[in-house]
Amino acid sequence: MHSQRKLEHIRVNLEENVQFPRLTTGLERYAFVHQALPELDLDQVDLTTTFLGHRLRLPLLISSMTGGTERAGLINAHLAEAAQAAGIAMGLGSQRAGLEHPETAATFAIARERAPDAVIFGNLGAVQFNYGYGLDQARRAIDMVKADGLILHLNPLQEAIQYGGNTDWRGLLDKIGDVARRLDAPVIVKEVGWGLSGNLASALLERGVAALDVAGAGGTSWSEVERHLTPDERLRRIARRFADWGIPTSESLRMVRSVSPDVPLVASGGIRSGVDGAKAIALGADLFGLASPFLKAAAVSAEAAIETANEIAHELRIAMFLVGAGSLASLKNTPHLRRLSPEEAIIMSRAAE
């Protein structure tokens, strides 16, 4: 049953329109001020960074997606080859399947086999701490893939819409804190596409979480994914009414950064290009994450996934060049990002249609 859901998640994401119908990331409301004389050599623009003590050639995370089935294992292999080749980080999909069905663990472990030098993050749903999971399962998830850290994902709307979802979310904040303090690896908390608020970010950091991934609204809507999957007509109607729920990625990023100027921070949720990533870094992110473009590429081949990473890197490098930012530190502190007026934003949105 669990493996079939994983296959269906892949199918729906590849074949159906599961984007937010109206809500956007908000990144389109920002624009860089073009610098016609950048005083830089494009080839010397430095994309390298350090995240949780690990050196990356590019501030990019392949966001958590899948595992638990043969097809998912092949996709993970392709994604891992891209992470290894590009020198970027990779998050795995929820490892619950690998823990509860050991015969599927190889579909996760293959990531480390194909990417021995890449930064790889394991993944569990935080709500599982209310359904029998604890420190032992967190350690086993890390060991399964020789991970450099563990992502705990938050998805209350998905679970509320999901047929038979896990909806007891009481007391999880302290349980996350207990794991974060006792696990011998950094814990990253992320949403799955509806954004983190500033007050939750503060509470998580107070409990020892090492990094955050805002995973804001504006990209893939998992309530839309579940709408395509549920056999319950009533749940399908309810899911549609939450299709535009959430905190846009740009706003979530600003909220979290405002409460902690120093937390290692990932911006994901609807980011589709190196230009989007450049805006996210200029707004305060340390890394930016993409899922959908990598899923579509990895479903084809490792080479397609590698080309996706290379294209994003090229776009990011050009964007930095055109604002005179020779390093990511310079981009993060650039004075050349401005928020568009409402009138300008309308014109830009119409032009994009």
Total number of β-strand segments? 12
Structure annotation, total helices: 16
CATH topology: TIM Barrel
- Please tell me what the overall shape is: globular
CATH superfamily: Aldolase class I
Order of helices and strands: HEEEEHEHHEHEHHEHEHHHEHEHHHEH
> What strand line-up does the widest sheet have?
4-5-6-7-8-9-10-11
* Fraction in beta strands: 5-15%
The unreliable regions are none
**What separation lies between the terminal Cα atoms?**
40 Å
In CATH's first tier, which class applies? Alpha Beta
Radius of gyration: 19 Å
Structural class by secondary-structure content: alpha/beta
CATH architecture: Alpha-Beta Barrel
Number of domains as seen in the coordinates = 1
> Largest sheet at a glance?
8 strands, parallel, barrel
Give the mean pLDDT: 95
The level of helicity is: 40-55%
Features:
single chain; 353 residues; alpha/beta; TIM Barrel; eight-stranded parallel beta barrel; two-stranded antiparallel sheet; 16 helices; 12 strands; 46% helix; globular
Provide a quick synopsis of the model.
The protein is α/β, with parallel strands linked by helices and 353 residues long. The protein has helices spanning 2-15, 70-86, 96-100, 106-114, 135-145, 156-161, 172-182, 198-206, 222-229, 233-241, 249-259, 274-282, 292-298, 302-322, 328-332, 342-352, and strands at residues 30-32, 49-51, 54-56, 60-62, 89-91, 119-125, 149-154, 187-191, 211-213, 265-268, 287-290, 337-339.
